[in-house]
Design goal:
The complex is a heterodimer of chains A (263) and B (304).
Chain A (H helix, E strand, L loop, with lengths): L1 H6 L9 H14 L1 H23 L11 H32 L2 H6 L5 H29 L11 H22 L6 H15 L11 H8 L2 H13 L7 H27 L2
Chain B lengths: L3 E10 L2 E11 L4 E5 L6 H8 L7 E6 L2 E3 L3 H5 L2 E4 L11 H10 L5 H14 L15 H12 L6 E5 L7 H16 L3 E6 L2 H7 L2 E6 L2 E6 L1 H8 L3 E6 L3 H12 L2 E5 L2 E6 L3 H8 L5 E6 L2 H9 L7
Parallel strand pairs in B: 3-8, 3-9, 6-7, 7-8
Antiparallel strand pairs in B: 1-2, 1-4, 4-5, 9-10, 11-13, 11-14, 12-13
Classes of the chains: A mainly alpha (263), B alpha/beta (304).
């Protein structure tokens, strides 16, 4: 019992977390171009394939073309994917394979700093992915509003949320294979249920309720109107749910990482 | 003031006591060695001293700072060479030092000032911009040592610093460590190489099953725990010979595998006896720390 309260002790951060972020940014910079292109390929293929292919047979959705509807979904799903991959596959490499975290914690930097540095880094990288999709969508004329800039903070919070949830898995994972479960059981359902490809209200009632509990739904509910020159309804709720996932996920990841690494 | 003190440390994992009451004191400028078989609790002791895990009971202080409470502050004055290499494989040698210095809150300019001398110390001045993957095991070890010095620490922890290195690479590391001692640094070393401990350490503690079972200078330990002369006898008839003659001609005989170790103050009669038996091969040498270690920790294989 005593140890459980210890793992859940309130986090204590220092500004040294920025150096953890900088370390990751420095590695990323060496491979920035291929990394960005890689992050862009998937959402682009979905957007162009479904957007033009399927969109041609479809009526407008909420007064916009299907491809414009899909673009907003892709901005969010690309943010989700990028943060998840970074926190899990890359995070696991740094934590377990390369033991980079161990090296950092031998310096005057704590695990709390490492974790917040990782979460903010995952969010930063996912923000870049989201922006890349947003820029392409804008170039294709699919977002024509300054309001779309408000999508940036939404992407960042979404990135913190998915980065933190990814770090939960990383702290639990025995190996890379473990992450497949998370993708199959959590990420893929969200791709399909959270309004990325079609409005959530097309789903049966029960699935709508389930979707309302998932973070991606709320990111999409904010970003889509913003890209379509509309102030989203229910901002507080959507931001609230995303923040809840961000803070709750991070706290959980920290407790699990402490259990794994500081015993 | 002592560089590091630990008092009555205890730590259990899942009901198994890994550290069962340890007291340590490191004096400034000395090389202190923690010896023990695999699983004796050496690495756990280091982790406790760095504040990376909390003791169940007991106190630790590093330069007067309480650990783990002020571990972050304490670690600012400490360098660490871990057992498993954890250099950043995505960076060059120089970048590794740069990034690591930032964790200590050093400015890039100040780190850049220190890097050339550190690379020189590591013998890597001409490999500064090579990727880590291109370096040999010995080079990586030396770079890890240089990395541990980036903050100019007064105390350096080394966890089995030469495990897995070839003899040349080991000698080079030892030479560097002696250089650091010459500069007045304090070194806390764990090892299971007795020759390493004998060469480097001013004082040693031998650990087993979470306890310190003996401590002192290498010479003191040898003097206190073992007869000064050893004759190792090998070959088919060694065991029979030991039972029939060896045991009575020496003060103590022990068997490991196909070798019999005979310990005595005066090995003259023993050697005379062996001279007459050409079928047995033998080696006469002075007792060393390994003999002490094996005597105190037993000759069974430790595979934990």
């Amino acid at each position: 019992m005593n140890s459980v309260t210890k793992y859940f002790a309130l986090p204590r951060f220092s500004w040294r977390f920025i150096q953890v972020w900088r370390r990751n940014a420095m590695v990323w910079r060496k491979l920035a171009i291929p990394s960005m292109l890689g992050n862009l390929a998937d959402p682009m293929l979905y957007m162009l394939g479904f957007g033009y292919g399927l969109g041609r047979m479809m009526p407008d959705v909420f007064g916009t073309s299907y491809i414009a509807f899909l673009a907003a979904g892709m901005v969010c799903s690309s943010t989700m994917m990028s943060a998840s991959f970074e926190a899990m596959y890359s995070g696991f490499s740094r934590m377990h394979v390369q033991r980079t975290w161990d090296a950092i914690m031998n310096a005057p930097v704590t695990l709390d700093d490492v974790l917040i540095g990782e979460a903010v880094w995952a969010a930063s990288k996912s923000l870049l992915s989201g922006i890349a999709v947003l820029v392409v969508a804008t170039a294709l004329g699919l977002a024509q509003s300054w309001l779309a800039l408000w999508a940036l903070p939404v992407m960042f919070i979404t990135g913190i949320a998915f980065g933190s949830l990814g770090l939960v898995m990383t702290a639990l994972s025995p190996s890379y294979d473990f992450f497949m479960y998370y993708f199959t059981l959590f990420i893929t359902p969200m791709m399909l249920l959270c309004g990325v490809f079609f409005p959530v209200d097309q789903l049966p009632q029960a699935l709508q309720h389930a979707a309302a509990l998932l973070p991606l739904t709320h990111a999409v509910a904010l970003v889509r109107p913003l890209m379509n020159d509309t102030v989203p309804p229910g901002v507080a709720t959507h931001v609230g749910v995303l923040l809840l996932y961000a803070v709750g996920g991070f706290y959980g990841a920290l407790a699990l990482a402490r259990r794994r690494l500081l015993t | 003031m002592a560089s590091l003190t630990a008092h009555a440390l205890r730590k259990s994992y899942g009901g198994r006591e890994v550290i069962a009451g340890i007291d340590l004191e490191l004096r400034p400028g000395e090389c202190f060695g923690l010896l023990g078989p695999n699983g004796a609790g050496k690495t756990t002791t280091l982790r406790l001293c760095l504040g990376l895990t909390e003791p169940d009971s007991g106190t630790i202080s590093v330069f007067g700072m309480p650990v783990p409470r002020a571990a972050r502050e304490a670690r600012a004055h400490v360098g660490v060479v871990p057992q498993i290499d954890n250099l950043d494989p995505d960076f060059t040698a120089r970048e590794n030092l740069l990034v690591y210095g930032r964790y200590f809150g050093m400015s890039d300019a100040r780190i850049a000032e220190r890097v050339p001398a550190l690379l020189e110390f590591a013998g890597l001045a001409n490999r500064a911009d090579d990727n880590i993957k291109a370096l040999s095991g010995g080079m990586k070890r030396r770079l890890t040592l240089a990395r541990a010095l980036i903050n100019d620490p007064a105390l350096i922890f080394l966890d089995e610093p030469t495990t897995g290195l070839d003899p040349q690479a080991r000698h080079l590391i030892w030479e560097r460590l002696r250089q650091l001692l010459g500069q007045g640094k304090t070194i806390f070393l764990t090892t299971h190489f007795m020759d390493e401990a004998e060469r480097l350490c001013h004082r040693l503690a031998i650990m087993d099953h979470g306890r310190v079972i003996a401590s002192g200078s290498p010479r003191e330990l040898i003097g206190a725990h073992i007869e000064p002369q050893v004759v190792e006898v090998f070959g088919d008839g060694a065991e029979a010979w030991a039972n029939a003659h060896g045991a009575s001609l020496s003060e103590r005989c022990e068997k490991t595998g196909d070798t019999t170790f005979c310990y005595a103050r005066d090995v003259g009669p023993l050697l005379q006896d062996l001279e007459a038996r050409p079928e047995l091969r033998y080696l006469h040498r002075p007792a060393n720390l390994e003999d002490v270690f094996l005597r105190l920790t037993g000759r069974d294989l430790r595979d934990c």
